Amino acid sequence: MSRPFARALTASLSVLTAAAVLPVSSAAPAAADGGIIGGRQVQVSDSPWTVAVSSRDRFGGTRAGQFCGGVVVARTMVLTAAHCMSRSVLGVARGEVRDLKVIAGRSDLRADEGAEIPVREAWVNPDYDGSTNSGDVAVLTLATPLPEGYVLPMADEGDPAYEPGTRAEVYGWGDTTGAGDYAHTLRAAQVHVLPDSVCQEAYPGNSDGTYLPASMLCAGEARGGKDACQGDSGGPLVARGELIGLVSWGSGCGRAGSPGVYTRVSEVLRVLRKHS
Ligand code: 4AZ
After folding, report:
1. d(CA 94, CA 89)
2. Which Gene3D superfamilies does this chain map to (predicted)?
3. Strand locations in 44-95, DSSP E?
4. FRET pair for 54, CA 20 to 30 Å: which of 63, 107, 148, 186?
5. Is the pLDDT of residue 199 over 60?
6. Cα(172) to centroid of ligand 1, in Å?
7. Sequence-separated (6 or more) residues with CB below 8 Å from residue 171
8. Is the pLDDT score of 99 beyond 90?
9. 3-23+48-151, what's its fold?
10. What share of the chain is helix, strand, coil (3-state, %, to 5)?
11. Do 3-23+48-151 and 160-265 come out as alike in CATH topology?
12. What number of other Cβ atoms are within 10 A of residue 256's Cβ?
């Protein structure tokens, strides 16, 4: 592992231990009016840790090249999903993508507000397993730091935010219908942390993946209707003002009996400590 990653990680972990829970302005849920799936339009100023991961070279310019979500966990450190950095998503090897950027402070991808920050280095979890989807995390090191107020603390193991029944919000610019209708503006949906048993029953192991509770987190609504979807991957699942999950996978979007599966952030912390 290279030095810049280790430095960013050290910074991040000191932020983590120093930070009290960031008071997230919990925008009162307005009436539901569409997706992420079953979500609502929100302003990125209320969730500045939510960023878009972009490459215009690979994905075109109409939505500023957005193809995944990400979350700011230190001033120069963004987490996203490992699968967002894969050849199957990028179409080429990651090293061939010359214009990988993080877009911060921009709710509407058609606007030019906020900042586009080049990614100086992308580190993909070497333990990511594309068959189960476990370990689905990558770290993007930014060329220039974001303001401290953009940083969202990560919930460590044992944090009450992981308890089943906890309300959580998922954010992204992804598909709002499951039919390839990608959002131009940031959206959020309120879901609940679900017991591991729900996802173990839904995903005992098939071509989509295998639910592994040590490294994954199950969230959604029993009836379906609220969920993350394609294009939201790598984006944040937030509970009690802390990051608990990264959008990772699931079977379809918003279907009853097929909850969303997230990368468990307490496991991300373990992975980061192991590699720092
Ligand atoms: C995807 O394809 C994807 N409903 C992300 C999240 C979910 C399903 C698919 C969860 O990136």
Report:
1. 10
2. Trypsin-like serine proteases
3. 50-54, 66-74, 77-80
4. 148
5. yes
6. 11
7. 36, 42, 47, 50, 69, 186, 187, 188, 232, 235, 236, 238
8. yes
9. Thrombin, subunit H (2.40.10)
10. 20, 30, 50
11. yes
12. 11
Whether residue 222 is predicted with pLDDT greater than 70 in this model: the reply is yes
Please indicate whether residue 247, judged by its CB atom, sits closer than 6 Å to ligand 1.
yes
| Residue 156 falls in which region: left (phi positive, over 0), alpha (psi -120 to 50) or beta | beta
Find the length of the chain: 276
- CATH class of domain segment(s) 160-265: mainly beta
User: For residue 89, what pLDDT is reported?
Assistant: 97
The answer to whether 54 and 103 have CB atoms below 8 angstroms apart is: yes
Collapsing DSSP to helix, strand or coil, 213 comes out as coil
Based on the residue annotation, tell me whether 136 is a catalytic residue of this protein: yes
Domain boundaries, the chain: 3-23+48-151, 160-265
Is residue 253 lining ligand 1, measured as CB closer than 6 Å?
A: yes
For the chain, report the end-to-end CA distance as a whole number of angstroms.
Answer: 8
pTM over 0.85: yes
Structure tokens belonging to residue 213: 């509770």
What is the pLDDT, as a whole number, of residue 276? 86
- Residue pLDDT, tens place only, 105-152: 999 999 999 999 999 999 999 999 999 999 999 999 999 999 999 999
Give CA 98 to chain center in angstroms: 22
* Beta carbon of 236 within 6 Å of any ligand 1 atom: no
Is 90 exceeded by the pLDDT of residue 9? no
- Give the separation between CA 25 and CA 241, rounded to whole angstroms: 9
Catalytically annotated residue among 55, 233, 248, 258: 233
